[in-house]
Amino acid sequence: EGGIKLNAFNGKIGGTISYYDIKVKDILRNDPDHANFSIQNGTQLSKGIEADITANPFPGFNIVGGYAHNKSEYTNADDDVNGLRPNSSGPENMANFWVSYHFMQGCIKGLGFGFGGNYEGKSLVVSSKSQGQFYVPEYTVLNATLFYETKKLRLGASVNNLTDKKYWIGWYTVNPQQPRSINGSIAFKF
Hints:
By secondary structure, the chain is an all-beta fold. Helices cover 0% and strands 64% of the residues. It has no helices and 13 strands. It has strands spanning 2-8, 13-30, 38-55, 61-76, 93-102, 111-120, 123-128, 132-136, 139-149, 153-160, 168-169, 175-176, 181-188. The chain is elongated and about 75 Å long.
């Protein structure tokens, strides 16, 4: 496992990128010679990259983004799952981004807005040779916010799941997620 961290242009751009190649051993699996027993000699291989970037190109403007790719498979496991992606490994691809700006001066100083979202590739719930594959489909959820902030007060409004996307999460289960929601907040600073 290793990575690189970057901080450039006097902190205006920063980020990391990492690569991993991990072999997990001693995973519990069924004993092929004794039906009611288990042995602890299974293995799983996970390889992937993770990258993120944060940028502040000019005062008040912020960009955050990230991406992860994970290839995972059982390499010594029960015949029913050997060579397959474990359903506990989550999606193979994930990404996120957020862009925001707040005015730093003038009559609308403190006013700001943001927009971003999350992407998740399909996530296995069942993965075996005997039962096949059942997965939660990929999805992209977008969010937005509008706020006004002073030294003593912050007013905010946000819309989560802006497009009212129907989506689910889950590894061993399938869980529906919240439809579009509109939220407001007031914060006082002392």
